[in-house]
Queue: 2 jobs
Job 1
Amino acid sequence: MKEIILIKNGELALKGLNRCNFEDILIKNIRRRLKSLGEVTIRKAQSAIYIEPKEEAFDFHEALNRVKLIFGIAGFSRALVCEKDMTDILEKSPEYLKSTLENVKTFKVEAKRADKRFPLKSPEICRELGGVILSKYHHLKVDVHNPDITVFVEIRDTNAYVHAEQIQGAGGLPVGTAGIASILISGGIDSPVAAWTMAKRGLRLNAIHFASPPYTSPRAEMKVKTLLSKVARYSGCINLAIVPFTEIQDEIANNCPEEYFTLIMRRMMMRIAEKIARESGSLALITGESLGQVASQTLPALVTTDAVANIPVLRPLIGMDKEEIVTISRNIDTFETSILPYEDCCTVFTPKHPKTRPTLESCSEAESGLEIDTLIEKAISETLYTYID
Ligand code: ATP
Ligand code: MG
């Protein structure tokens, strides 16, 4: 029996004139994500997208798992393809739905006719298919109000489709429809969640990581790559820039007052990130900051880091509690990696009494002993680029 994946594209339906463009980007994303599973035909019609495998051995289960993570999809189904002919629908559907129907007690049939020329009206389709199902599965009863399962029959452009399960999609907007932004990624819990949150709103991601060997180990860098590959299952591939940060940290430690270490470090990160982001086509930076979570994330502290970045800084977690962030992190499977205990460059130089109410003037004064431009140029020239899939 021939099957397809039938996709309903949710929020996309609202996008008016942009819709075509959005759907084309979504289709491109789906194609890319399913590529390694074999050849498929993907087409759109009547606010749905049809994925039709060309090969017998197509791994449907894995394909569904991947589709579940693609942003811009509200819901989808694995569906049986029938001729647009009641006899064919009645003959194939009961057998196709066997394993599902055997495990429930009540059901109903719902029919939708996108093609109004189909000779039977929706209630007639329901009655006929319901009758045949009842005659084959004697344990079943019809319950139109609260059935264990609903069997859907959709009469569409070229075929009829039958399915019994609507799977919830990842929601959001197709990655790439909102432009590109650069996530500042550490090895912690927050930044991968921030990356995922913004990819969900349609941003394609670049990533920037500051590494401070030998204070931070190669394992810490591996951890960042693992986190990004987990995010990439949703966002698609991510370009990663790894910026050497050791010299800057040493210079800060040797030339600046201790209570400003973290703030100055973050200002240096922002300055470098802005340059790298612009070079790679990003229109904004993204961080995992959450108001008040640590000393460098109080409002006065954020003002001093924002002041050095001449580019919008998106902070999707700014109003979230740690608990809410951890919940997302578990859902997207980054949590277990994030809590691995490898040193992060921020923890290495954490001051005992960090400044929580800095001013722009006091920050400038505190970093006046640094050769800021020279340090930035050197770090950028030694930055390494890789690609996470
Ligand atoms: P996270 O859990 O993301 O590490 P955090 O609560 O530990 O966040 P900080 O360490 O203060 O907070 O960092 C705040 C934000 O700054 C991070 O969410 C991240 O966006 C960015 N950041 C921190 N360290 C690095 C780093 N080594 N490389 C790149 N970005 C970083
Ligand atoms: Mg951190």
Job 2
Amino acid sequence: MFRSIRWRIALPYVILILASMLALGVILSNFLRQIYLDDLEAQLATEARLVGEALRPLLEHSVGAPANGESAAPLIEQAAREWAKTLGARLTIIALDGVVLGESDDDPALMSNHADRPEVIAALRSGQGSSIRFSHTLGYDMLYVGVAFPNPQNPLAVIRVAVALNRIQSHLAQLQGILFSATLFVAVLAVLLAAWIAARASSPLQQLTHAARQMAAGELSDQPAAVNIDEIGQLTQAFNQMSVQLRQQFRTLETERGKLSAVLQKMSDGVLIVDQQGLVQLLNPAAERMLSLLAREAVGSPLAEAVRHHQPFEVWRQCQETGEGQQATFEFSRRIVLQVVATPLDQALPGSILLLFHDMTRQRQIERLRRDFISNVSHELRTPLAALKALTETLRDGALEDPPAARRFLARMETEVDALSLMVAELLELSRIESGHVPLMLQPTAPMEIVGPAYERLCLQAERANLSLTVECAEDLPDVLADAGRAQQIVVNLLHNAIKFTPENGQVIVACEPQGRFVCFSVRDTGIGISAEDLPRIFERFYKADRSRSSGGTGLGLAIARHLVEAHGGKIWAESQLGQGSTFSFTIPIA
Ligand code: ADP
């Protein structure tokens, strides 16, 4: 409690006031005692002279009496007793040689010689003397005042008047009591006053302390008011300004932090910050996803333990050694390819390194597809072109002279050219669909309007191949939102394959049925089926399940079908087992 500034201000004042009151009390009581004693001494001296005047004849007689004459002693003693009663004091008449002539309170005959008493010595020397002594006769302090009577030059006797000092001591005690009460009262008043003044002075400081504590706890809302213009007021004002500025800076920081965290949360690249010791400091959700980590487990743990691949650690190590950016691409898990770029964070976070992870899987896939596409196109073109080259060479080398053979060769050349133009046409079609250059005229269309014409177009082909082709569509199916011509093309492509890959006497069924918000179309056959290995890839461009078995197709039919279905907002998939037939299904949204 006494450590507070309030008490540090109040306490010295209180001590000062108490000390001065105490000193004043002591000085005052001593002073008063002295005055009292002086007065009393003067009064007793006067009384002694008075008594002297009254006893003068007796004293003269006593001094002048012959040794054998009648003694005045009993009379003096008698007078002393009477006068003592009148004065209310002890009275002693002492001869110049110190013999006690008369005494009010004792028997003079039994009393010792008084020549050595200080008041007697002083009275004989200067006319008057006094002394304060403890009286063994009476048992308390007494003031003795002796007067040489009638004068010091020619004295008859020393008249001594004494009073007990217990009365004046009780007066003094009373006075001291009053002084003490006053001191106490003033002290209490001083304490209260000092406490009040100190409280007034320190309350703005307390407010400031409170506000500073709140600020330290992160609450910047409360503001201490500037009370007055003194130093504390100025301090409060400065504090207010500081708090306003802090709040502004805090808000700016919060906004910046919000932005940064939003960017980190939403960015598709993985971000990881690793400190000098190789401990993970921060990672964003994308990094969690890419590296299959949990932030709460990874943060604080070593990079080599957190990320289960040596490459990021290697890149971090090199970056730390060289102090320069590093990068590497690695296959993190099956089919996931990541690129990691390490950058030192220099000034922003000395010693820390930023690892940026970029998912390269899709890019790698596209690159692979492009490579496959080019090799596929050239491969597909090479066969008919080689055949054409061989046929023209044969014709030039003499077959022209043999008209029947020449006609046969020409027919074969025509077939090859047809195959080439079909492939070019399909490629063009695919690229137009892929690049969105084929606008779909979507309108409510009855499913039978899609299935019917496709069936008509391939009926004859199925018949020639000795296959039964049937349609199983409910009549009350809802309309779908489709471009009829393009939707027919999907069914035609699927039917075409079904007929192509189903041996004689097989069955091909086209069906349609509602499926939630869609109508599901399916083409089922009892053909050769597709192996589980090929099944996921048959919708890719140029993909043919069995390359050795030349089906005469281009491998583009299903890719075109997939693009058309997706342009309609549906999905396409295939289910098949080798040797057991296949079912191709696709959905088109209901109008
Ligand atoms: P293609 O012009 O070669 O038929 P597609 O893209 O239409 O090209 O088909 C790709 C491959 O899918 C075909 O080469 C074939 O191996 C397989 N395939 C498609 N439909 C069927 C089916 N109904 N039965 C068996 N295999 C099929």
